[in-house]
């Protein structure tokens, strides 16, 4: 099954908690704190691999989780860093953030890697909190939770040339003749239900990849005929070969077909419609009068297109078409991508304690505090230690949470809820 789009949930590993211990040896009294730091959580990394051709496996496995970092231990021992989770995808896959819609990375080369979800930072052990006045700290910092995000994977085929045109104009036949591909061929609409790729090796020139893009009819940019699902596969192409049924064997006007397909390309993406395009008038072997082809060729040339008269069945005109295709590919070189990538910072994912936005909702004697910083703060606190809880309370005070609660009329013994934590309020 060919699957070219999938939505998956990523959970990077949590950072390990810092250790809380003291050095105790027979002849070393008051050895001091020696709790080690927690290990960093594992990242989630995507890697392009030529051994994969589809995103099918992500339809069945949607949740992916990296390994957590281990907690720090005594003897100043740092916890083990969580193993990174390497997710292999086909070459040509782009990764989008579901919430923002922006493109995170474009994996267009074999072996290319990109870190998509950051593992949490490990907490500091109590050995880090010893000072001249606090020589025996009995608290350690909790590890930071790993990044969670939902991403959308889209596979965009890496083809140099895209074959476009209405169904049954001979795209599959042409592909089978000029390459070793074996697409399904028959005389009915939508024979091709998945994009087909083939490699053209012609004479002594460098080979190039050509793709037969199915499903292009009127309304394709809106999903008619599955067109919007397959249009993405011509986004990377440098050159478009527009195939027309010069014989009108389907009872359609080839010139109107040409205009309709180009309108769909423009509606889908203006940059795509501006790709270099040449026209191939196919099925001329079915015409008794060549004058009809000449008139159609002249009309298309008036519009500024190079036109080639061919027959995929007999081989007529294919040498001229391929020769010009190779020349154009050399002239065009690299093309501007039609999708924009916004690079992310490579910094370690850490909680932002400077963020000051939060909301408070009152329900009778229950006050529910919500804010992006809360979950990150809670995972960095060891609630079994009074000093660590004191740190937690100072952060809430500094952020103005307590002041806002008092402004809303909170009384002693009213309940405050922060994420999964509830406590009674005392001034």
Summarize the structure in short.
By secondary structure, the protein is of the alpha/beta class.
Describe this structure in words.
GTP binds at residues 165-172, 190-194, 212-215, 282-285, 311-313. This is GTPase Obg. Residues 159-330 form the OBG-type G domain. It is found in: Cytoplasm. Strand 15 (359-363) and strand 16 (366-370) form a beta hairpin. It contains ten helices and 18 strands. It is elongated and about 105 Å long. It has a six-stranded mixed β-sheet, with helices on both faces. By secondary structure, it is of the alpha/beta class. The longest helix is centred in the middle third of the chain and has 15 residues, at 254-268. Residues 185-193, 223-228 and 346-356 have low confidence and may be disordered.
Please describe the topology of this protein.
Layout: E1 5-11, E2 44-49, H1 57-60, E3 63-65, E4 85-90, E5 93-97, E6 103-107, E7 113-117, E8 148-155, E9 161-164, H2 171-178, E10 196-200, E11 208-212, H3 227-230, E12 239-245, H4 254-268, H5 270-273, E13 276-282, H6 291-302, E14 307-309, H7 318-332, E15 359-363, E16 366-370, H8 372-379, H9 386-399, H10 401-407, E17 415-418, E18 421-424
Parallel strand pairs: 1-3, 2-4, 9-11, 9-12, 12-13, 13-14, 16-17
Antiparallel strand pairs: 1-8, 2-7, 5-6, 5-8, 10-11, 15-16, 17-18
- Basic shape: elongated
Our estimate of the beta-strand percent is 15-25%
N-end to C-end Cα span: 63 Å
Radius of gyration: 31 Å
Measured as a percent range, the helix fraction is 10-25%
If you average the pLDDT, what whole number results? 82
Strand ordering within the main sheet: 10-11-9-12-13-14
Main sheet attributes: strand count, strand direction, barrel closure? 6 strands, mixed
Helix-strand topology string? EEHEEEEEEEHEEHEHHEHEHEEHHHEE
Low-confidence blocks of residues = 185-193, 223-228, 346-356
Structural class: alpha/beta
Number of continuous helical runs: 10
Using DSSP, what is the number of strands?
18
